Amino acid sequence: MRRSFAILCLALGVGSSAPVAQTTQEKIDRDTIWKIRTEAAERSQILNTLHMLTDVYGPRLTGSPNLKAASDWVVKRTTEWGLQNAHLEPWDFGKPGWLNERTSAFVIAPIKDSLVVEALAWTPGTNGAVTGSVAQIDPPSPVSQGQLAAYLETNRAKVKGKIVFVGAPAKVPVTILPSPRRRDDDDVRARYDPANPNPGGPGGPQRPPDAGPEILTTNQVAAQIDQFLVDAGATARINDAGRDHGQIRAFNNRTFDLTKAVPTLVMRNEDYGRLSRLLGDGLDVQLELDIVNRTFPEGKTQYNVVAEIPGTDRAQEVVMLGGHLDSWHAATGATDNAIGCSVMMEAIRILRAIGVKPRRTIRLALWSGEEQGLLGSQAYVKDHFGSFENPKPEFANFAGYFNIDSGTGRARGLSVFGPAEAAAILRQAVAPFADNGMAGATTTRSRRRGGSDHTSFNEAGLPGIGVGQDPIEYGTYTWHTNLDTYERIIESDAQASAMAIAAAVYHLAMRDEKLPRFSKEQMPSLPTPTTTQ
Known about the structure:
The protein is an alpha/beta fold. The chain has helices at 30-42, 46-56, 65-80, 145-154, 156-159, 185-191, 218-232, 269-280, 334-353, 375-384, 420-430, 454-459, 474-478, 491-510; strands spanning 84-92, 97-109, 113-114, 117-119, 130-137, 163-166, 236-240, 264-267, 286-296, 301-309, 314-324, 360-367, 398-403, 411-417, 441-444, 464-469.
């Protein structure tokens, strides 16, 4: 269903309700904004793009043939839209691709039922259907090396030839008061109010407390349990998803080496709990599993997708927009992040369709390897721009990168790595979309990479611009889960985001000066690296 044409009748000059002192009044091209609104409302391609990325090419796990096919399709579609220089840019993933073709799981004794599971990525298949009794182990936590080794050794005979449940079932409380789907307008205005000394919002990554040198990390424990199950001759491993209403988040074998893990599934909490209780009754619980996984050596080379609208008198300078195209594999990756890619593709499509002639080049980039640690965007930034400390020639010509990656919710504000002047410019650029809930812009000084791909630019000392959104069901139901499908998308929210982002991108592409950056004296230092073993 298309958004009502009534959106075109809203005033274009509405701004933030909070008075903001501006050092420079920006020239807002209201004729172009009207064209953007009209094109977005009357000829939206968002749902068609989303359909292709999810229903046809999803899931899009990094290294998989699905992701490569989706990337090729984006090149073809953006070229059909009239964008230029659409191509794939390779980077070294260094690991084979992986794909789960099908999985089935049943309990066959002492009851009979189907089970809801997802395969863990980069684990082997079962080479046909296998049956076996279930054994359950529950390693202590926190645990030292000596304690873990002793515990595993006492259970070696127990797991041989068995399908092993690892851990007790999680006790997932019933949700009495669900999280709000929309952000409160007053809270959003406060979050993006430059006069607010404590705007709040999500903080940076938090380091866990130091457990002491003798305590193993979660990753160390997981790797040792995996190797133990291989060495002890276990048939398969099953983990508890630990979430409500059948949600499953299935990530990957952290080594990416299929020889270091047994076939592994993540089971919905409701099934895992039921079978664990039957085991607790002393019953012989037997399962039948059939897991078909494939690996692809060619997945070691991955690709980012790039397409652009060439600039005119400042064509060597570039304004970028994008999001990550890869997804996890439990669903089709709709809210994370096919809808973000659809919004950014729509934003640049709108600009091309209305015939803008930007002064700076406008470049779309869709990344791979985000879910494995922002790998694609890191490679791109390193190859093209370098860093503040070691810049390449393109570093000086960069004018900002817009990133969206928080689900289907409408855009509510922007956060830019840069001085207050940068936020003031962006605030004016998006002010005409206050009627759609856009509240403004704020700044960050953090160069810590994490969260999403704009931080790859921040880390390099470049103005990455993150888009804040309404949560809808993102953190509660769809993010990385088996529920992340086309049906969870709100078209009107995505249209509102595309309008505001198209206008902001166009504004930065047309200004006399690039978006202000931190000076040499202002530039924050790089954070101290943290390591996880």
